[in-house]
Amino acid sequence: MEYEGQICRPPMEKSSYMLPVAVGCSYNRCTFCTLFKHLNYRQLPIEQVEAELQRVKQAGGNPKTIFLGDGNAFGLKTDHLLHILEMVHNYFPDCQMVNMDATVTNIHQKSDAELRQLYEAGVRRLYLGIESGLDDVLLFMKKDHNLEQAYREIQRMQQAGMVFNAHMMTGIAGKGRGIENAEKTAEFFNRTHPERVINFSLFLHKRAPLYREVEAGRFVPASEVENLQEDRRLIELLEVPGLVYDGFHDFLELRVKGTLPQDKEKMLAKIDQKLLECEGQQETFAIVA
Ligand code: SF4
Predict the structure, then answer these.
(1) Per the domain annotation, does 181 fall within a domain?
(2) What ligand 1 atom has the least distance to the C-alpha of 103?
(3) Whose CA is closest to 254, among 232, 238, 237?
(4) Could you read off the pLDDT of 187-201 as tens digits, one per residue?
(5) Could you give the residue ranges of the DSSP H alpha helices within 26-111?
(6) Which atom of ligand 1 is nearest to the CA of 25?
(7) Please, which pLDDT band fits residue 9 given cuts at 50, 70 and 90?
(8) 89-98, pLDDT tens digit by residue?
(9) DSSP state, residue 251
(10) How many beta carbons lie within 10 A of that of residue 87, not counting itself?
(11) pTM summary value
């Protein structure tokens, strides 16, 4: 199968077999996101999905974990997802779990019984773009949820048996608000207990609607050092036993990865070392053309 657009999946899913079931993101409105802006969202025909499963089977594939793409596969209608899951298990009886990206609204649109059905059909991990623990930031970034909705829907998916994993971005609250955002985001995670948190740290793309907000003076980006200070405060405050944390600060060539609480001190020391190296240097901003 030819993949359309960018192949995008969480780093923890890098060894999963990625099965495209849709192209793009059905929401596609988050202000900072450029991943799928150039694509018209569409569900792939079931025949195309089956042809891909056949191809991999014939090539000798026997995946244990499958990741459904693209941007929010959990938004597909429950019957359609169940059909795909049935095919997955027919072709690959050894498959142990099926994971995918989801939005808070995708969960809201499914009943408790549907969530349970999907769990029983093999859906295990959902990756949610939580991004921030501040409601005004979620609103500004046009996320499809506020905190109250996120708390409610995460609890529902967890009650159905699924595991909550989070994407977030240091820097998303803008200049001068990193510590405030870290504290509220830590509070959110300490209450919702994700298994994995992936911090991509804000990359400001000139093609993103957010860049227009910068040009209009309505959003002032934080420096990479402020983003790293935010990450430090967040890790310091996280109290979720067994949480796997993976933070990317590509412009500073730093990746902060570990399992809490045992790796916390090591992770903080790594950040402190980088902050020390940055002292006295010119400020950098994660802006890409
Ligand atoms: S829901 Fe995710 S993929 Fe869709 S626009 Fe928002 S950040 Fe991008």
Answers:
(1) yes
(2) 1
(3) 232
(4) 999 999 999 999 999
(5) 46-58, 78-91, 104-108
(6) 4
(7) confident
(8) 999 999 999 9
(9) G
(10) 17
(11) 0.95
CA 28–ligand 1 middle distance (angstroms) = 5
Residue nearest to atom 5 of ligand 1 (CA): 28
Alpha-carbon span 242 to 260, nearest angstrom: 5
CA 261 to ligand 1 center in whole angstroms: 30
Which of 36, 132, 168, when mutated, tests ligand 1's pocket best, judged by the most ligand atoms within 8 Å of its CB? 36
Please say which residue of 128, 151, 184 terminates a domain. Answer: 128
Q: If you average pLDDT over every residue of the chain, what do you get?
A: 94
Q: Looking at the domain assignment, is residue 149 inside a domain?
A: no
Are residues 97 and 196 both part of a single domain?
no
33 CA distance to ligand 1 middle (Å) = 6
Atom number of ligand 1 nearest to Cα 143: 6
Quote the distance between the C-alpha of residue 275 and its chain's center. Answer: 26
User: Looking at ligand 1, which residue's alpha carbon is closest to its atom 3?
Assistant: 71
In a domain, residue 109? The reply is yes
Residue 39 maps to which CATH number?
A: 3.20.20.70
pLDDT one-digit tens code per residue, 38-86: 778 889 999 999 999 999 999 999 999 999 988 789 999 999 999 999 9
Asked whether residue 142 is domain-assigned, the answer is no
| 3-state SS assignment for residue 13 | helix
Claim to verify: residue 100 and residue 181 sit in the same structural domain: no
Q: Same structural domain for residues 225 and 119?
A: no
Residues 184 and 250 in one domain: yes
Domain co-membership, 122 together with 245: no
What are the beta bridge partners of residue 23?
42
Question: How many angstroms is it from 144 CA to the middle of ligand 1?
Answer: 9
Token pair of 208, please? 């993103």
What's the domain count of the chain?
Answer: 2
190 in the same domain as 96: no
Q: List the domain range (segments joined by +) for residue 38.
A: 1-128
Q: Looking at the structure, do residues 276 and 202 belong to the same domain, yes or no?
A: yes
Ligand 1 neighbours by CB, cut-off 6 Å: 25, 27-30, 33, 35-36, 71-72, 103, 129
State whether 6 and 84 are in the same domain.
yes
Report how far residue 243's alpha carbon sits from residue 251's, in angstroms, rounded to the nearest whole number: 25
